[in-house]
Structure formats: structure tokens, C-alpha cells
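Colleagues,

Please find the record for the two-part complex below.
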Amino acid sequence: MNIELFFAAGSLVDTTRETALKFGLNLPQFIAQVISFLIVAALLYKFAYKPILLMLDERRKRIAESLENAEKIKAELAKTEAARQEILAKANSEANKLIEEARASAAKLQEAEARKAIVMAEQIIKKAQEAALADRIKMMSELRKEIGRLVVETTAKVSGKILTPEEHRMLIEEANKNLISQ
Amino acid sequence: MLTSKNIKRQARKLFKLCKVNNVLDENRVRLAVEGLIQRKPRGHLQILKFFKRLVKLEIDKKTAIVETAIAIDNELKNSIIENVMHLYGKDLRLSFITNSSLIGGMKVKVGSSVYDNTIITRLNELLEQF
């Protein structure tokens, strides 16, 4: 097996050598070119590729940071929006509550005022009725007195003239009888 | 200075002394007044004043005034005198007055007691009812 590998390797070296000869490969030149390439590559790596990588890395970091910030801002915004909505809802609720309270108070006040007005009106009516009744009673009393006075006056005048001496005597006798029986 | 109570007491005492058989005697009254005026005891003016009042009340009590609207005959007068004396006592002094404003009926006044059975009073009562 190892012998086979040895022979295979020997043929590969030969093939490589033939190919190099075909392509005109000059080993020292090739080595010098490789060294110069390595030097250039090292220089490029140090002075160009590394700063660019650093810059890119920095930019990537900045972008990531920016994205993170954006996410944070977005979250903050969402949070703020939620808080705003909550405050708004609370304010709306408070405002509705206040309006309801104000309406209830107004209704209560209106009812109380209406009741007060009704009571006052009733009192005024009652007073007016009482005054009218008192006036009527007073008027009736005055009228009765006046009628009575006229009746008595007329009766006194007429009876004084109408009574005969016999009737006078009868009245005195009756009074005399009543005097004893009192 | 005599108190009002003492003055009244003394006047009443004097007044009692002026009565004979529970009837006021004019002579005694006269003598009492004259004696007071002559002797002039302390507070005699106030005593006389109260004594006068007591005498007046007694006289009023024993005086009957009968008022009628027209003059009445003796027969009716006697009947009234009899009734009044029956009610207020025999020692009454009666006087009859005619007062046409009574319209009709009779009014008897003895002291502070008044019996009124006149038409004018009835009409006035009626007027009061109105």
C-alpha cells in the first residue's frame, strides 16, 4: 500500500514538474513574487484591510446600536403611546364622571328649586286665600252689623211710635212679673 | 301717718256705729261727720272720704230707681214697689223715672244690681248678636 502511494506521489511530482516547464515557471522568480505578494498582502492587510475592517466593524456596531436605539425608541414610543392612551382614557373617564356628577347636581338643584318654587307658590296661594277669606268674613261681619244696626234703628223708631199705652202697660206688667220670677 | 288699711278700718268702725238695727241712721251719720270735723284726728280727711264712700254705697243699696218708657198709674207703681221690696228688702227708697228712649218695658236699678227688661236693651242685644 505504501509502495503504491510512493509511486503515485512520484508520478504527481513529475506531472507538476512537467506542467511547470510547460507554463515556463521560474522558481526563484516565483518565490520572489510570492514574497513580494506576501509583503504587499501584509502591508495591505495592516494599512488598508485592517482599518477598513475596523471601520466596518465600527459602522456595524453603530448600526446595531442605532437599530437597538431605534428599537428602544420604538418601545419607548409604544410605552408612551400606551401611557398616553391610558391617561387619555382616564381623563375621559374622569371627565365623563365629572359631567355625570354635574348633571346629577344640576338635576338635583333643579328639582330642589322647583320644589321650593312650588312650596312658595302654595304658600302665596294659601295666604291669598286666607286674606280673601278674612276680607270676606270682615265684609260679612260689617254687613251684618250694618244691617242689624239699620234693623234695630228702624224697629226702635217704628215701635216707639206704634206702641199704644195699653201695650206699654202690658210690657211693664210682664217685666214686673219677670222681676219676681228671676 | 295712718296707713290706708287703718283709715279704712276706722271708717268702717264709724260706719258700723252709724247703723241702728242694721239700718243706716241719718242723724248718727251727721253726728259722726261733725265730730270728725271738730276733733280732726290724724287722717280725718281720708277717713271722711272712705266713710262717704261707704255711706253712698249703703244709700245706693237701699235706693231703687225704676225706669219706664211712659208714666205709669199708682196701681202698677204699687205692684212694682211690692215686688222690688220683696226682692231687695222693705227699707228701700224707690223713685220712678220716665225715659222714652227705653221704647217699652221696665228697668230697675238697686245699688250695683240692674234688672233690665226694656225693648231698647233687647234690641241692643240683638244688635250685638249681629
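Chain A touches chain B through 26 residues (CB under 8 Å).

Comments are welcome before we finalize the supplementary table.
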